[in-house]
Each structure stands twice: as C-alpha cells, then as structure tokens.
Amino acid sequence: MKKRVRIKDIAEKAGVSTGTVDRVLHNRGKVAADVKKRVLEVIDELGYERNLIASALAYNKEVRVATLLPRTEVDPYWLQTNQGVLKANKTLQHYGLLLEQTFFDYGNPASFLTNAKEVLASKPDGLLFPPMFAQEARWLIQQCEEHQIPYVIINTNLEDANPLCYIGQDSYQSGVLGARLLNFGLSEGGQVCILNLDYSTKAAQHLISKENGFTDYFTETQSKNIEIIREDCEQFDQPDKLRAFLLELLEQHPKLSGIFVTNSRAYKILDCLEEPILDRKIKIVGFDLITPNLKYLHEDKINFLINQNPSDQGYKGIHSLFKHLVHKEEIEKYQYLPLDIVVKENAEYHVKQISSEDLLV
After folding, report:
1. Tell me: the pLDDT tens digits for 72-90?
2. Can you list the domains of the chain with their CATH numbers?
3. Which of 61, 210, 265, 297 is the most buried (most CB within 10 A)?
4. Could you report the per-residue pLDDT of 319-339, keeping only the tens digit for each?
5. Up-side HSE of residue 259: CA atoms within 13 Å toward CB?
C-alpha cells in the first residue's frame, strides 16, 4: 500500500515550516520564489495528493459557478452537456459548489446576450459557456476579463480568447477525420457534401474549422479526384422544407456519394429522405451518440458517428473551475477530448462509457 504523504513530510524534506507548505498548496500569502520552487519539487517527488474535502473546508465558503447553455429541450446534444454539468455538481456540491444555471434559446444571439447580462449581474465566481455566437461571445469574454471572472469555454474554441481552459473537440481534426471516413466509400470522380444543419453557420467557428479540415484532407489526397460541395440548411427543423432541400441537392448532384453532417443532426436527413438516400447508396458520417443517430447507425443507414463527448465537456468544465477556485490549481488550457469513431459494432460500449446515469434521450 502506498504510504500517505503528509504536509509535515514535505516541510521536513524541503527544510521549511508546515505553514509555508500550506501557503504554497493554497497559493496564498507571500513565499519567496526559490522556496516555492523547492516546495513544489518536493511535492512532485513525494507524489503528494491534496485531499478534496480538507481543501474545500479550508476554503470555508461557497463557490458560485454559473453555466450559460442552450435550452436542453431543443437539442439532445445539449441535454447530454447539461447532464455532465449536473453530474459534476452532484460530486462537488457537498464541498461548497453552488451551481447557478441559465439557459438561452438555441440559434438566438439576442437571447444569448440577454441571458449573459443576467448571469454577469449575479457576479458568479466562475462561468462555463459555449461561445456559439462570435460577436456576442466576445462581448461576454471581455466582461468576464474586466470583472476578473474565470471562464471555461466548451464545444467551440475562439483562438483570440483567453479562457481558464477550452474543453471539447479539435474541430479541425474532426473535419479531417470525417473526410477520411467518407473516403473509404468513394469512387473516382465522386461528389461529397459538407452539410451544415444549423443557424448562422458562417459565423460558427467550430463549423468553419471542421469544413477546413474536411476540405484540406481531400486537397491533400488527390487520388480519387473528389468534388466537394458545401451546403447550409437553416430550416432543418421543418421536415417539408428540409425534404425539398435534400431532393434538390440530389437532383443537382447526380454523382453525390457521401454526406458529412457537421453536427449531431445526421438523423434528420434520413427522417426526411430515407429511401432516396439508401437507393443512391450515399454514405453518411455525422456526430454524437444521441438516440435517433444510434437508431440509424444500428440499421446501417448512418455509416460512422464521431463522438464529441458532450457530457464530458460539461463535467470537466465544472471540475476545472472548482479546482481553480478552491485548490488554486493551474488548469491545462486546452483539454481536447478524444474523437471516438463509432460504428454499430462498438456503439454499445461507447454508450455505456457516457455515464451510468441516463444521458440519452
């Protein structure tokens, strides 16, 4: 059994008082730089692990962490994100975490901005949100930095932001991966479509990065002479209009043999146009392990899903804020989550890994 390392052990080996070690651990009070360096080296050498309960009790106050997320009833992807937030809250609320949740209307920048102002007015100790709308998100980021509110961004990374950390996929690499997966089923001279089923896609940085990764893969892989088509459909929630859009897409591009759906809505294509898609043997690659996507995956109608781990984004985001606020820990700035390739044969394994709780809809 590994011997438990005490603060006293660190102090003796570093040649300092236990009070000095305590100040280094909790990043409070003045400690000379060379002394702090020596203490940290001893901490690493001895493998000291701080006790979460003791550290939280020492903090002796509630930590108010706010979240600003899309309404979960609109999109099952964000339901999973919020379930991750709630799971983190369940593990940390006994140690002083006070979670304050605010929701905005999906695809509505004005709703995001209005609710962001309400969150700021409550003066939280930390904030977690996805910067879905570039202009509005940059305003919120500026306010957080002016008021010294540490913030975590998830799902979409803004390169000019300076968050406590970003947690989510590497969007560019997920685009490269989507292209690689589609390429397996393409013939010489075929056509593939990058399909954005979302609002305001031209301002969505994560979708732009996915598109860049996707197109770069085929630019660098010239062996099949593949033509890339890019399409947006903001009326994805209106089945008749989405069906008409897809029928026109198929008519205009008779060689279309693959569709890369850049978010979690691949199932909507098959809901509206299952028979023509299957008759043309069009390969589909999409994102995320939500119930309607899994249904079509098991039926061999969606070929690949890339799991973006939305529940982990929420869970790790809350934990990162808590560790920073309570432990004064240095947080890894870019926490890229794995890009899991899911097919029907391994889908059950990945679903079980999401959580023992009911994260699916």
Report:
1. 887 889 999 999 999 999 9
2. 7-49 (1.10.260.40), 61-169+310-337 (3.40.50.2300), 171-307 (3.40.50.2300)
3. 210
4. 999 999 988 888 999 999 999
5. 27
